[in-house]
Amino acid sequence: MFGLTALFLARFQFAFTVGFHIVFPAFSIGLAAYLAVLEGLWLKTGRSAYLDLFKYWLKIFSIVFGMGVVSGLVMSYEFGTNWSQFSQKAGPILGPMLAYEVMTAFFLEAGFLGVMMFGLNRVGKGLHFASTCLVSIGTLISMTWILASNSWMQTPRGYIIDKATGRFLPGDWLQIIFNPSFPYRLVHMGLAAFLSVAFVVAGVASWHFLKARREGRQASEQVRLMFSMAMWMAAIVSPIQFIAGDTQGLNTLEYQPAKVAAMEGDWESEGRAPEILFGIPDMEHETTHYKVQIPFLGSLILTHSLDGKVPGLKDYPKDIRPYSPLLFFSFRIMVALGCLMILVGLWSLWLRWRGHLYTNTLLQRLLILMAPSGFVALLCGWTTTEVGRQPYTVYGLLKTADSVSPISLPNLETSMTAFVIVYFIIFTAGIVVLLRSFAQEPHSNEEGPSEHEPQMAAGTTQISHHPHHWAE
Amino acid sequence: MMETASSWLPVVWAVLAATAIFIYVILDGFDLGIGILFLKERDHENRSVMMNTIAPVWDGNETWMIFGGAALYGVFPVAYGTILPALYLPLLFMMLALILRGVSFEFRFKMTSPFGRFFWDTAFCGGSFVAAFMQGIILGTLIQGIPIKNENNTFTFIGTSLDWLTPFALFCGLAVAIGYSLLGATWLIMRCEGALQETMRRAAYGLGALTLLAIAIISVWTPQLHATYMQRWFEWPQIALVAPVPVAVVIVSLTLFLGLRNKNSEILPFVATLLLFFLCFSGLGINIWPYIVPPSITIWMASSPPASQAFLLCGAMFLLPAISAYNIYSYYVFRGKVTADHHYH
């Protein structure tokens, strides 16, 4: 098919499936934390709007989590089917970490998800809240293990290479897990998940503000509440994310300078480097065309000093240079969206102070457009870091070309076609169902306490009031 | 010390992995079985009831498979890296089927149009059947053996991508689908009442008979595949270990049918089916041991270094009991009969 190689198709398939997958765990991480906060606030204040929002977003969570589970299932097997050489060589190190992820996080999420979704009228409020928190903690633990594994592939430490088989053997597990880039990546990814969800929530709220305005009525209390919470999140977290991204940049410069050179489109290593705002890196002619640059800024951003030395791609042999054009743009899109988020956050603070937070239609229109911005930035960020690791799977040690399975091309073509078709079906259906849920305005629960006799919870707690069919 | 660790750690992990796979088989077995039984049940309400008996727990059930994959990767990377390429297509079809089935839990209840409902009902039913069928093919392929080349202790699969397409593996696929349906039917006898329970009771007779027939055929067929399997079953002292199995199968089957006949017994058929699965599973275990990729890779050859296996075992000792505890708790919370007005969605 189109003269493609098995290696290329295996890489393309991985990029396709992981790109599809990553959106859902990020959505789940942010949303689970949001749900725990909402339920906690409801229990603390007794304000029913919090419970309404909890139920509203729980419906979304159920769809998002289900799609995350099934697309993640594919990942855990793709290593074996398409990357069997990688699995045999790096398996002794990465396998236990992934197994720990399943044991400490996945089971926790799946075990308490049922109680969280369907259990409010079956267990006590306290136990239910505990379940929600456990699901949220599960998503965070899961992220921690995945980021530890991924970071080890970027900045491997604590391994011994077995001479006979070329396998990586574990030497020191603490060094493996707490490898040099792990803390930075963990923080950056966690904040990205929270921000992504904040912008989805803000987008949905904005939609209902504008709709209510068109219909000449006030948006519901729930809409205002979730808009306000989302805007606090954007205002507080997006500047923190900027700092987190900056420190990760410093870390990357220290451990993966070739990646930084490719991200910046820099060819010559130099002090007092300019920052290229726009340009088109050309791998063949070793230059960046149409450069628009600001003097000294490159050194200032990357090294925090005006004459700091910035690496250039010419420092590295041609065959180990990451593909700069892709990195250059994915990195810039991420940064641009990040800056936009900071501006929106500041704007919301100003409007809040002036008392116009819920009435500024310009902000609301912008936020509808920005609803998926967190996910776009997250995908661009992952593209930058993963493509920047090339041509290695384990940075500097194991080439991607030596990681692939001895799989025939027809197999990969079959599976790729099948994945595209099936993902297209479920992704389309998922978007339709999500948008349909978003189109419903969150409102006060019209159903009072159930007319049915109170049920006994698993323990002895009696549920005094629970809306019937509440998780419908 | 390391020498002895590298001999017993793989054994511990083989037992743990087998246990995890068995837990997966029975848990996802009954929920896949319910999907297959959708074929038989036409009524929309009844289908909802069937789905609602598993809606709160299927996620947890499927996690055992992800654990199986991750543990295989961590403790037997060689097996992981050779079995998976050999089973590329069956695994692919299983994954796609599980994806469609998994999302249909959410989508089915949210569809308003008849086409949407029909589509996701079909996805749920078809996905469950294909997943079960592929799992049987995977099992059959493993039993019949996977051709492997060993170069400098790097093992590579050297067969073709259609090696799994044999009568034996296909029959195993069918057998697993039938067995899972029996698990699903007996689960529903336990969790439902009224007409639906009656339907399932009737279905379970036929499925029980078919399951026993399939067990008999596979038991006769398997020893013919390899000389070593033949020795395993009919030589001393293995025969002493193996001889009670057919006897136990007969006793358990009788219990199953007695349970089905007695209208008051709602739990016994399910328990008997579980025992039947356990007997088959241990039979297969005895058959394959100590190979993890028959006929050439033993559990020791497939193992990751003791440092990896020990690291994971430390955690597993505490985590697996905890996981089992809250899994059981989750089943306990959602115990009892499910009727049409219990809406989990």
UniProtKB/TrEMBL annotation, chain A:
Keyword Hydrolase: no
Protein's membrane topology: Multi-pass membrane protein
Residues of the signal peptide: none
An individual GO BP term: aerobic electron transport chain
Taxonomic superkingdom: Bacteria
UniProt-annotated stretches for the region Disordered: 443-472
Bias kind Basic and acidic residues: ranges: 443-454
GO annotations of cellular component type: cytochrome complex; plasma membrane
Keyword annotations of the record: Cell membrane, Electron transport, Heme, Iron, Membrane, Metal-binding, Transmembrane, Transmembrane helix, Transport
Positions of transmembrane segments: 25-44, 56-77, 97-120, 127-148, 186-210, 222-244, 326-350, 362-384, 416-435
One Pfam family it belongs to: Cyt_bd_oxida_I
Compartmental location: Cell inner membrane; Cell membrane
Molecular function via GO: electron transfer activity; heme binding; metal ion binding; oxidoreductase activity, acting on diphenols and related substances as donors, oxygen as acceptor
Protein family: Belongs to the cytochrome ubiquinol oxidase subunit 1 family.
Name the UniProt record assigns to this protein: Cytochrome ubiquinol oxidase subunit I
Organism: Swingsia samuiensis
TrEMBL record, chain B:
Annotated GO MF terms: electron transfer activity; oxidoreductase activity, acting on diphenols and related substances as donors, oxygen as acceptor
Keyword vocabulary terms for this entry: Cell membrane, Membrane, Transmembrane, Transmembrane helix
GO terms, biological process: aerobic electron transport chain
Membrane-spanning parts: 12-39, 86-103, 124-148, 168-190, 202-221, 241-260, 267-289, 309-329
InterPro entries, alphabetized: Cyt-d_oxidase_su2
Pfam families referenced in this protein's UniProt entry, alphabetically: Cyt_bd_oxida_II
One GO CC annotation: cytochrome complex
Protein's membrane topology: Multi-pass membrane protein
Keyword Transmembrane: yes
Subcellular location: Cell membrane
Family as reported in the entry's similarity comment: Belongs to the cytochrome ubiquinol oxidase subunit 2 family.
PANTHER family: CYTOCHROME BD2 SUBUNIT II (PTHR43141:SF4)
Protein name as annotated: Cytochrome d ubiquinol oxidase subunit II
Organism for this UniProt entry: Swingsia samuiensis
